[in-house]
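Bumping my old thread because nobody answered last time. Still need a sequence for this structure:
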């Protein structure tokens, strides 16, 4: 399947939203000292990841929506697979998944947010002189 060039590719592989080649994050999300820290710009195409100060605050909305979707999905799965489970176990499972998945949700929300604003442009052509400040 040729899915390079799709936003899903960038999100799942944690790649630059513009060229899908360079890394987006400084480290793996579960490297907790650097969880969610992203590079200033793509190491391959050199386009900037942060277009204005505070740009990634908006990723909170993505994170919130994702967390609620995961919590509801788990709850529905519990209702289908184990409808007699005690309420405190249901809560423990949902909270456990949210806490353990937190660093991953945080990272994914940032790259989803970036992909909402940045489109795939392919690799930078040699000599085009772009430094990430495109019209
Ligand atoms: Zn790039």
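Sorry it took so long. Here it is:
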């Amino acid at each position: 399947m040729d899915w390079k060039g799709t936003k899903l590719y960038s999100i799942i592989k944690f790649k630059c939203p513009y060229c899908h080649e360079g890394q987006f994050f400084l480290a793996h999300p579960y490297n907790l000292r650097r969880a969610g820290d992203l590079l200033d710009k793509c190491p391959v195409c050199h386009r900037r990841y942060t277009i204005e100060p505070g740009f990634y605050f908006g990723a909170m909305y993505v994170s919130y929506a994702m967390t609620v979707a995961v919590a509801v999905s788990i709850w529905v799965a519990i209702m289908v697979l184990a409808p007699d489970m005690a309420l405190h176990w249901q809560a423990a499972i949902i909270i456990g998944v949210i806490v353990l998945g937190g660093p991953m949700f945080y990272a994914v929300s940032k790259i989803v947010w970036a992909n909402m604003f940045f489109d795939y442009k392919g690799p930078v052509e040699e000599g085009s002189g772009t430094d990430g400040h495109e019209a």
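The helical segments are 7-13, 59-81, 87-117. Let me know if any region looks off to you.
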